[in-house]
C-alpha cells in the first residue's frame, strides 16, 4: 500500500499567459499520474489545486489557503516572476516549498523555492554568445514591463556592450498589452541585426504577428527568446516560424508541451525521488531534504546552496512547426547571481535593484 502525500498545484487556467501556465499544470499532473502508477515508489501524490486566473493579487492568498487548510507542504506552480515573488512570504510563513518549472531572470535564491528550469547563465548568456557572431552586434530589446523583462534587458545590455555591440532600442509593454505601433515603427527605422523578445503571453504573440506582417526589413529580422516554447505555437501561429530560442529541452517529436511541461513533470518526479523510502520527509525544509538524500547516496538535481537545477543548454530554431537544434552545450551548474563566466570572461558588472 502506497502512502499518500498531499501536494498543491497553483497555476492559472485563464489570463494573458494561460498557454504557459496550463502547459505547466498539465506537465505536473502527468508527473503525478506517472508517480502514482510506479510500483517502485512507496508513495502516491494527492493533489489540491487552486486557479489564480492570471491575477497577480490572487497568488499569495491562494498559496496561503493551500498551505493553511491542508497537509500540503510542496506546491508546483507559478509562471511569472511576479507571482513567484508574491508567494515566497507565504512559503516562509508556513514552511512550504514552491517547485518552479519555468525559466527566470536570476538574482534570487530562496530556501523555499526549487528552481527546476534555467536561469540566465543557462539560457540568455549562451544564446547571446551564439547570436553575436552569427547574426551581428546590433540588438533591439523588447520585454514585458515587470521583473523578467527588466532583468533580461539589463543582463543583455551588459553582455552585448562587453562584446562591443550596440543596443538600438530597449522598450517595455504592460503584461497583456498588444498596442505595438511605436515599437514596430522604431524597429523598422533602426534595422537591428536581431531582436531579443522578452514579452510574455498575448503581448509576444501580437508582436510576432505584427512584425512578420510588415512590408519592410523588420519582417525578416531574427527574433530571439529565452521563454518561448512549443506550448505557445498554437497561440502564436505561423508568425513564430524562424524564432530562435534557448532552453534545456525541446520536443523531439510533434508534441506541444515543451520545456514548461517537461520541467513540471520532472519536478514531480524529483520530489518523489527525494521522498521515496523516507516517511514524513515531506514536512522537512528543502535544504534538509536534499541533505538526507545525499546522505543516502542519492544525487539530487538541485544545488544544496542555491536550490537551482543543473541544466543542459540547447539553442534551436523553429522550422516547419518544430524546433531544430542549432547548438547543444553540456549541462552546466546554475549561477543565479552571475558570479562567474564559465572561464570565458570575467563576471558581468551588474547592479541589482530591488
From TrEMBL:
Coiled coil: none annotated. InterPro entries: Peripla_BP_I. Transmembrane segments: none annotated. PANTHER family: ALIPHATIC AMIDASE EXPRESSION-REGULATING PROTEIN, PTHR47628. This is Negative amidase regulator, AmiC. It comes from Paracoccus aminophilus JCM 7686.
Amino acid at each position: 500500500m502506497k502512502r499518500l502525500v498531499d501536494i498543491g498545484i497553483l497555476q492559472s487556467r485563464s489570463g494573458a499567459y494561460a498557454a504557459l501556465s496550463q502547459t505547466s499544470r498539465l506537465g505536473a499532473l502527468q508527473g503525478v499520474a506517472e508517480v502514482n502508477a510506479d510500483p517502485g515508489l512507496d508513495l502516491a501524490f494527492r493533489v489540491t489545486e487552486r486557479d489564480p486566473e492570471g491575477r497577480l493579487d490572487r497568488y499569495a492568498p491562494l498559496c496561503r489557503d493551500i498551505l493553511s487548510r491542508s497537509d500540503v507542504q510542496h506546491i508546483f506552480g507559478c509562471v511569472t516572476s511576479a507571482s513567484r515573488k508574491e508567494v515566497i512570504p507565504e512559503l516562509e510563513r508556513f514552511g512550504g516549498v514552491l517547485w518552479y518549472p519555468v525559466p527566470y531572470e536570476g538574482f534570487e535564491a530562496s530556501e523555499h523555492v526549487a528552481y527546476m528550469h534555467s536561469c540566465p547563465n543557462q539560457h540568455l548568456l549562451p544564446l547571446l554568445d551564439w547570436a553575436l557572431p552569427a547574426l551581428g552586434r546590433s540588438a533591439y530589446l523588447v520585454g514585458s514591463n515587470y521583473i523578467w523583462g527588466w532583468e533580461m534587458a539589463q543582463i543583455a545590455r551588459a553582455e552585448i556592450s562587453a562584446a562591443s555591440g550596440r543596443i538600438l532600442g530597449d522598450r517595455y509593454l504592460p503584461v497583456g498589452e498588444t498596442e505595438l505601433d511605436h515599437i514596430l515603427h522604431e524597429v523598422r527605422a533602426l534595422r537591428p541585426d536581431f531582436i531579443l523578445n522578452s514579452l510574455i503571453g498575448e503581448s509576444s504573440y501580437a508582436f510576432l504577428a505584427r512584425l512578420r506582417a510588415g512590408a519592410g526589413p523588420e519582417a525578416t529580422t531574427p527574433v530571439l527568446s529565452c521563454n518561448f516554447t512549443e506550448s505557445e505555437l498554437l497561440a502564436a501561429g505561423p508568425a513564430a516560424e524562424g524564432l530562435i530560442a534557448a532552453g534545456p529541452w525541446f520536443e523531439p517529436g510533434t508534441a506541444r508541451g515543451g520545456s514548461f511541461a517537461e520541467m513540471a513533470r520532472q519536478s514531480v518526479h524529483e520530489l518523489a525521488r527525494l521522498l521515496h523510502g523516507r516517511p514524513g520527509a515531506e514536512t522537512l525544509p528543502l535544504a534538509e531534504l536534499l541533505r538526507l538524500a545525499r546522505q543516502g547516496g542519492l544525487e539530487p538535481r538541485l544545488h544544496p546552496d542555491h536550490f537551482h537545477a543543473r541544466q543542459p543548454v540547447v539553442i534551436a530554431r523553429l522550422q516547419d512547426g518544430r524546433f531544430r537544434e542549432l547548438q547543444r552545450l553540456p549541462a552546466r551548474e546554475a549561477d543565479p547571481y552571475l558570479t562567474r563566466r564559465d572561464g570565458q570572461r570575467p563576471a558581468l558588472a551588474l547592479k541589482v535593484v530591488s
